């Protein structure tokens, strides 16, 4: 049984009508930029797609990878990676977060490498990091507009949403993730960087989640890192494209190196942005990925910050719980 199949068959989740029709983007959108980890330029094109096709990555029509947890790659440090056959695409979480939040249920996503240096570049792709947030994706989607998606027969389809029937939780060291039944989607995140005083302990809660609240409160929050760990990340072949223009950087001793922040709690808001992107991987056939529940996550970060707490992306542990017929939450604790 696939992981999404385990989720579908679980008694913990009930799929119910969301009260809206499946949608797609009205016209093609094209965005270019540099990859955070590869440092290479790439171009992404978002195309309208028919109802019940869902969101998927298409590579020169040679390979198609659904934006599904079934294709999430394990041991993907500091980003979410999807792979199939010899093809893979990294750092998909910001784009998928924007698509889920703006309710683009069906979409063909093409990624093109603008710099081809080796044969590997023909099958190894990365979504551009842009300014480190999802703001440019949201703006591009809003400019293009949305339209009701129809199937091959010209019929529209209802969007189904996964409703949580009973509480689930998972704990690991000083961190936990829990989800409790709720009539609406509500996301709460807490982070504790006690040894980086400029970040400290932060909490942020978002409800209800809609395209307006996402655009105003979440989309512009940027990815962040600890300055003292930049050299180690470089030595691992990561963040080759990282700059002060696509991330906010905090020194444990000196504080923020490239202020101002867009929000006082911008790091915590960005964790919610990533969470939405990873939970979107449970969407199937053009249906909603985010569970209708109150999801609460809390992470304690100690030195070394990322390499003790973020050695994998937020999607990996989701897979472990799905196999056990529980809603996948545990990966948030990696």
Quick overview:
Strands 3-4-9-5-6 form a five-stranded mixed β-sheet, with helices on one face.
- The 3D shape can be described as globular
Instruction: From the alpha carbons, calculate the radius of gyration and give it in angstroms.
Output: 19 Å
DSSP E strands, number: 20
Largest sheet, in brief, is: 5 strands, mixed
Distance N to C terminus: 24 Å
Strand order of the biggest β-sheet: 3-4-9-5-6
Structural class: alpha+beta
Report the helical percentage: 10-25%
What is the average per-residue confidence, as pLDDT, rounded to a whole number? Answer: 88
Number of distinct helices = 8
Q: What string, H for helix and E for strand, traces the elements in order?
A: HEEEEEEEEHEEHEEEEEEHEHEEHEHH
Estimated share of beta-strand residues:
25-35%
The quaternary structure here is: single chain
- Residue stretches low in confidence (pLDDT < 50, at least 5 long) are 306-334
Features:
globular, 8 helices, single chain, 32% strand, 5-stranded mixed beta sheet, 334 residues, alpha+beta
Give a verbal description of the structure.
This protein is an alpha+beta fold and 334 residues long. 20% of the residues lie in helices and 32% in strands. The chain is built from eight helices and 20 strands. It has helices at residues 3-9, 93-101, 135-144, 211-217, 230-235, 266-279, 305-309, 316-323; strands at residues 13-21, 23-25, 29-34, 41-48, 55-59, 63-66, 82-84, 87-90, 107-113, 124-126, 146-148, 158-164, 168-172, 175-181, 186-193, 200-206, 224-226, 248-251, 255-256, 293-300.
């Amino acid at each position: 049984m696939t992981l999404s199949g385990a989720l579908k068959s679980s008694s913990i989740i009930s799929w119910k009508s969301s009260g809206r029709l499946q949608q797609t983007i009205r016209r093609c959108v094209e965005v270019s930029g540099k990859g955070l980890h590869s440092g290479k330029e790439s171009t992404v094109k978002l195309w309208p797609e028919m109802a019940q096709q869902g969101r998927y990555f298409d590579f020169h029509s040679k390979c198609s990878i659904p934006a599904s947890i079934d294709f999430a790659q394990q041991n993907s440090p500091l980003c979410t990676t999807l792979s199939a056959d010899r093809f893979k695409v990294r750092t998909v979480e910001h784009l998928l977060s924007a698509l889920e939040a703006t309710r683009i249920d069906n979409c063909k996503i093409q990624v093109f490498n603008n710099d081809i240096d080796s044969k590997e570049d023909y099958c190894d792709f990365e979504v551009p990091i842009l300014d480190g947030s999802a703001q440019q994706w949201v703006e591009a989607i809003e400019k293009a507009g949305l339209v009701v998606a129809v199937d091959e027969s010209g019929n529209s389809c209802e969007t189904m949403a996964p409703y949580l029937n009973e509480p689930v939780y998972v704990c690991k060291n000083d961190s936990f993730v829990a989800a409790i039944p709720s009539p609406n989607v509500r996301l709460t995140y807490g982070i504790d960087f006690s040894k980086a005083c400029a970040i400290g302990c932060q909490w942020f809660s978002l409800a209800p989640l809609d395209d307006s609240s996402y655009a105003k409160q979440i989309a512009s929050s940027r990815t962040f890192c600890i300055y003292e760990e930049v050299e180690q990340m470089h030595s691992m072949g990561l963040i080759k494209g990282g700059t002060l223009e696509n991330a906010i950087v905090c020194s444990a001793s000196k504080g923020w190196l490239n202020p101002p922040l867009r929000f006082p709690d911008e790091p915590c808001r960005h964790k919610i942005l990533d969470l939405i992107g990873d939970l979107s991987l449970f969407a199937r056939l053009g249906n909603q990925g985010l569970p209708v529940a109150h999801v609460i996550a809390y992470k304690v970060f100690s030195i070394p910050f990322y390499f003790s707490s973020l050695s994998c992306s937020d999607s990996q542990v989701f897979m472990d719980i799905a196999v056990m017929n529980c809603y996948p939450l545990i990966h948030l604790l990696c």
